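Ticket #4471: structure output looks truncated?

Reporter: J.K.
Steps to reproduce: submitted the chain below (244 residues) through the standard prediction queue, then opened the result file.
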Amino acid sequence: MAMVISSVGVGLRTVSPSYLFLSSPASALFQSRHSFAITTTPKCLASKEDLPQPQPLEEVKSRENAQTILHSFSPFPLLCAAALLPGGEAVRSVFGPFVELVKSWNLPDWLVHWGHPGNMAVVLFAMGGYGTYLGFRIRYSDNVEEKAKAKDLHPKLLGGMFFFFALGATGGITALLTSDKPIFESPHAVTGVIGLALLTIQTILPTLFEGNPGLRNVHGILGSGIMTLFLIHFALGLQLGFSY
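Returned output as attached by the reporter:
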């Protein structure tokens, strides 16, 4: 009689009955005992840690509800707005008396020619550059004290940059008119007007943070774009300065 015995990790299989010859009770018992071959079942060697763990339901739901919002900005409307600026003749008539006053001071030509670029370079790299660095520290720093100081100084520096850039625009116009050069026709003038318009928007955005926290991302992206624009504006200004 063939039997099958199973246990954990061990399996028993029967040998064909044709090999069993029951000549006596003793031989039958011997043959019945040895009529089974033991086979070993391979065990799983993977540990519990190697198996994929189920993810919490809250994490799965948060991934399903996650959204990626892309903000974009087109400068072309500002280019159209720059085209609506008053003509050079109107600005010449407004600045005329002040230009004549500056000419009467007999200032050195190098001062009139490079005074405006020098002042604006200091404002751009000192106030704008350090103010931009503080903006990134506000966003990414883990030091509470450093972040508090950056939050206090960042708006002051960039607000000062806005003020001196607006004031410096009048100095640039005065320098061009004193040298009898055209104004608003150069790319330097167009990028300057666009930059001041964007700085106006940038100044208003922090007042809307409480109602819409997502505007902080817009503020950071726009600020980086404005600094890039003013670097281009600076390069165009140097090109204009060396052109005459």
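Triage note (M.O.): checked the attachment and the full token line is present. The longest strand covers residues 10-14.
Status: closed, working as intended.
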